[in-house]
Amino acid sequence: MTAIIQVRQLVKRFGDHEAVKGISFEVEQGEVFGLLGPNGAGKSTTIKMLTTLLSPTAGGATVNGFDIIHQTNAVRSSIGYVPQALSADGNLTGFENLLIFAKLYSLPRARRKERIEEVLSFVGLTDASGQLVRNYSGGMIRRLEVAQSLLHQPRVLFLDEPTVGLDPVARQAIWDHLMQLRQENDMTIFLTTHSMEEADSLCSRIGIMHWGEIVAIGTPDELKATVDGEDPDLNDVFVYYAGDALESGGSYRETSRARRTARRLG
Ligand SMILES: Nc1ncnc2c1ncn2[C@@H]1O[C@H](COP(=O)(O)OP(=O)(O)OP(=O)(O)O)[C@@H](O)[C@H]1O
């Protein structure tokens, strides 16, 4: 097994606040790795450093063998990134959105149309490709954003809360596509989530983040085995490692954001 992501003592400070406190871990090629944690734990900050959108305060990491501080362009061209915020333009069609990303990724002109059709077909949006994205459902927009991130055939795909605000059917469709990517393309997937169910269904390994630290890491079964009690599930694991955060971690903010996202997507 080869570590495709290597994180060493990674720190991010915002003023006096240390959002990420020297975390270290590795992700092997072909894994679906999930960072699970309450809001404010430092998940998005970590994903933004690994995708080169934020510079670390200290420590470092490599992604696909490229240094996230000194080889930012090489990292960017070898990864796909689906951010939490909306990245598709509602005033363009699905096809037009993909064309912009194909140009951004410098896909050769002669290959663009064919590759756009391939990714549209993969996410099941071929028939909707000529419609304005503002008429898409939340699930279709998410699938389009996944398609955007796949155009340049990245080896690692980063997703920041891929299914927040989606209904169960749309969420299942995203999960199915991610599993297909892993199985058919040996793609490594790194995602953040609040959802225990998402982590349990999708992830081969999970890191639980709490107040800027990774407090537990392992397969879902390994993590469950660290917790006492009869047949513990990931909820029990989460409460065990980050329980007080569930009580005090600003659930209002989480709820408000999930609703905002749902409104925006729906
Ligand atoms: N640009 C910023 N400036 C100042 N503080 C920030 C900034 N970005 C994040 N933080 C703070 O860093 C901490 C970690 O935030 P982060 O968004 O990484 O957490 P998270 O685990 O992704 O939470 P959520 O699930 O709510 O997105 C929080 O206390 C947040 O307020």
From TrEMBL:
It comes from the Bacteria. One of its GO terms (cellular component) is plasma membrane. It is found in: Cell membrane. This is ABC transporter related protein. InterPro entries: AAA+_ATPase, ABC_transporter-like_ATP-bd, ABC_transporter-like_CS, DrrA, P-loop_NTPase. Keywords: ATP-binding, Cell membrane, Membrane, Nucleotide-binding, Translocase, Transport. The lineage of its organism: Bacteria, Bacillati, Chloroflexota, Ktedonobacteria, Ktedonobacterales. Belongs to the ABC transporter superfamily. Drug exporter-1 (DrugE1) (TC 3.A.1.105) family. It is a peripheral membrane protein. The keyword DNA-binding does not apply. Its main location: membrane. Residues 5-236 form the ABC transporter domain. It comes from Ktedonobacter racemifer DSM 44963. GO terms for molecular function: ATP binding; ATP hydrolysis activity. GO terms for biological process: daunorubicin transport; doxorubicin transport.
